[in-house]
Amino acid sequence: MEATTQPVTVQANINAPVADVWNKWIAPEHITQWCFASDDWHAPFAENDVRVDGDFKTTMAAKDGSFSFDFGGTYTEVEENRYLAYTMGDGRKVTVSFEQQGDGTKVVEVFDPENTHPVDFQQAGWQAILDNFKKYAEQ
């Protein structure tokens, strides 16, 4: 597969104030409740050092024990309640913006796709995780 350089965007409008959305995005006890794409997966572990040069890691695992992997990176920019940027272990870049809109918050993630899976597959997976976050954050 040819390398893809075009970043991919996923987004969600969440019916919660930006401070609440931010907290549920960054706090490990919340991350383990939403950071997976489907009900047959879970996130049994998360750690998050939210500062420039701070690292984060979330373990995503199939509930049946058949597969797991760690998703992580290092923060390059942090603006509380507004913006996160990080670099993943393989060098790909990701940004996450949080924008208060009325009583809700618009979350937009932009990521560099990897070259193993089709871009539409990656976009669908990231969107599913963001949709799961929305469901959790609105509880």
Task: Write a structural description.
This protein is an alpha+beta fold and 139 residues long. It has a single domain (8-137), classed as START domain (Alpha-D-Glucose-1,6-Bisphosphate, Chain A, domain 4, 2-Layer Sandwich), CATH 3.30.530.20. 25% of the residues lie in helices and 42% in strands. The chain has helices spanning 18-26, 28-34, 119-137, and strands at 8-14, 41-48, 55-62, 68-79, 83-88, 93-101, 104-111. It has a 7-stranded antiparallel sheet with strand order 1-7-6-5-4-3-2. Strand 5 and strand 6 form a beta hairpin. The longest helix is centred in the C-terminal third of the chain and has 19 residues, at 119-137. It is globular and about 40 Å long. Residues 15-138 form the Activator of Hsp90 ATPase homologue 1/2-like C-terminal domain. Belongs to the AHA1 family. This is Activator of HSP90 ATPase.
Keywords summarizing the entry:
7 strands; 7-stranded antiparallel sheet; Alpha-D-Glucose-1,6-Bisphosphate, Chain A, domain 4; START-like_dom_sf; 3 helices; Activator of HSP90 ATPase; alpha+beta; ASHA1/2-like_C
Write a short abstract of this structure.
The protein is of the alpha+beta class and 139 residues long. It is 25% helix and 42% strand. It has helices spanning 18-26, 28-34, 119-137, and strands spanning 8-14, 41-48, 55-62, 68-79, 83-88, 93-101, 104-111.
